[in-house]
User: Fold this.
Amino acid sequence: MQTHFTPEQLADPHVAESEKILRKCVHCGFCTATCPTYVTLGNELDSPRGRIYLIKDMLEGGRPADREIVTHIDRCLSCLSCMTTCPSGVNYMHLVDHARAHIEQTYRRPLPDRLIRAVLAAVLPYPARFRAALKLAKLGKPFAALFERSAALKPLAAMLKLAPASVPRASSAASPGVHQGRGVKRGRVAILTGCAQPVLDPGINEATISLLNRLGVEVVVPPGEGCCGALVHHMGRESEALDFARRNVDAWTRQIDEGGLDAIVITASGCGTTIKDYGYMLRLDPAYADRAARVSALAKDVTEYLDTLDLPEPSMKPGTVVAYHSACSMQHGQKITRQPKALLAKAGFVVKEPREGHLCCGSAGTYNIMQPEISAKLRDRKVKNISATGAALVATGNIGCITQIASAAKLPVVHTVELLDWAYGGAQPRQLQ
Assistant:
């Protein structure tokens, strides 16, 4: 793609990077076939290629974002399916992240939109606040249908509908500390406890620690670690996102310096995609660039790390038919496709892959709150394809997908690591009891 940025514009490193990305696009349109919003809406401007044109026009013109650009960028799930499809290596992720930051800086959203986004940014990344909000949501649930009648309040209705009927008790697995491995020591890792996941399903990290400990791996929950920053990053709140990233880099660097780490294990693939990008996000910060790159290099999805270990024979082989849903952040963001399925098969599960596995389930961080109608269409399409496999349960590696699919599926939805922990001598996942 030909670009026309001025030397003054290219002096901005963010613009210079986006210009490089734009020049790689050859207008081929391969991305349209795998883009969930284009497949759903049929609008060229709701495809990666269409959004690239809008972003190019906005950045080249050096102008504020307008309503049209915001509408189509907001509809992007950041599923990154387009990056898997693209033959030219266009880094759409970094381009759309830059566009979102530009929108945040130059566009004034309607008041209800600003308020809802502010609430999400102030609550979701903080477990204590999120837990309190979910308990309060019980009081608001009866009003969800009323809120749904107003376009401005539909995100609030979606929020209330997604809130679970009960909130699990806080787990000690989220508290800073060291969980010693059993027998011969085979490794030392840090684990990301996260923000939303330990509130919605603390059993995921409990199963991870339990399994790794039985395999002889020491697991550290570092003090000072918190939200990965993905949620605010995808809102364009770049300063907040970088603050979260710096906090985590500090926490993990201390562990690297004190006792060494073989990996930083992540059990939410959405977080993994962001943490693996810390090196890029903090590349312009001289105090953090090198350490952030070091952290990104150590970041591993839990299945990615388990695949490096010589696992023993499982304690039992359930033989259960499992539909494996590959989260977008797993298959497109991190390019992890083989390991989860191979681990499940080795553990004795019969793995089925649903049709259209490349398409997003519609969760995408806060997308199912901010774009509830499109999200629901994608969810229903995903659930239909999962049901067609004839599986007894669904396995996936991202808490957002678990929540989204479980809101409509009749099958239990379980994190992949919980099934692996069960097969290798751990507790049966609560969803299967």
